## 1
Amino acid sequence: MAKCIATVPQSITGIYKGEKVRAKFSCYSEERAMWGTTTYKLRPVSGTCKENEDFFRTTPAGDISITVKEDETNARLSLGSDYYIEFVKVLEG
C-alpha cells in the first residue's frame, strides 16, 4: 500500500466541487496478457490514515479496470500504488 501524505492539502479536502469529482484509488491487480496488454484494477482506498479516511467517506464505491497496450502509453500504473482520479463532466457546446 502506498504511503499517505502527512497532511491533507486544502485542494483535495473538498472532493465534490461543481462538475468535478476527485477520488483516490489503489492499484490492487496487474495482469499482463501475451498479446502485449496489461489490465490494471483499482479500488477506493480505505481508512489507513487521515487522508484515506477522508477519501473513503466520500469516494464513489466500485472498482476500476483499465487495459493499456504496452507500446501505446507512457502512463504506467504500479501495483500497490495509490492514484488520484478526477471525473470531470464534459460540457456541451
## 2
Amino acid sequence: MSLDDFWYDEEELLNCYAKAYQRNIDCVAWTNGLYTLRAVESAINNVMPLAVGIGMGGGKIKPIEYFDKPLTEIKEESDKEKEINEKESVLTEEGMMNGMKKLNNIIN
C-alpha cells in the first residue's frame, strides 16, 4: 500500500490490505506447520515403524516419505490434471453430440 493510498483513500482499503496480509501470514504459517508435521511424522514412523503400528492398533505400517516437491508445485500439477480431465470430458461430450447429430441427419 502506498503512502498516498494510506493517507488519502478510504479506511476500508486499509482494512482490506490488513485482512489480505493476515491471510497470507496464516497461509504461510499453516504451510510451515504442515511441512513440520510431515517431517516429524516421517521421522518417527521410519525410525520406529513397529511401535507406531502397534500404537495405531495394527502391525507394521508402510514408511512415510517426505514431500518430493513443494506443496505449490503439487497443487499446480493437480490443477493442471483437473483442467485436462475437464477438457477431455467436454471433448468427449461434444464428440458424442456431433456424432448423434450426424447419425440423425443420415437417418432423416
## 3
Amino acid sequence: MALNYKGPYDDIIDMPHHVSKTHKHMSLYDRAAQFAPFSALTGYEDAIDIVKRKQQGVALLLYWSGLNTSYELALFLYMVIHHFYLNNNFNN
C-alpha cells in the first residue's frame, strides 16, 4: 500500500543534513549553556537549603538531647510545649 500523501515539506524531507564548512559543531555542553540563564524552578535551591537546615537542626537536637530517634525528639518537644502552655496563661 503506497502512501500518496503530499505534505508541506515533501520537497525538502529527503535532502541531506547541512554541515557548515565555516563553523565548528557546537558541543552539547555549550548548547546546554545557552539555556543556563533560564530557570524554570525559581526558588528550588532556596527550598532545598531550608530543608537541609531543618534536617541539620533536628540532627543537632537529637545529638544534644541524647535521644535516639526523631520520634523521641518530637515526643519530648511536645511535652515541653504542652508543659509551657499549661503553666502560662495565654487568655489574658
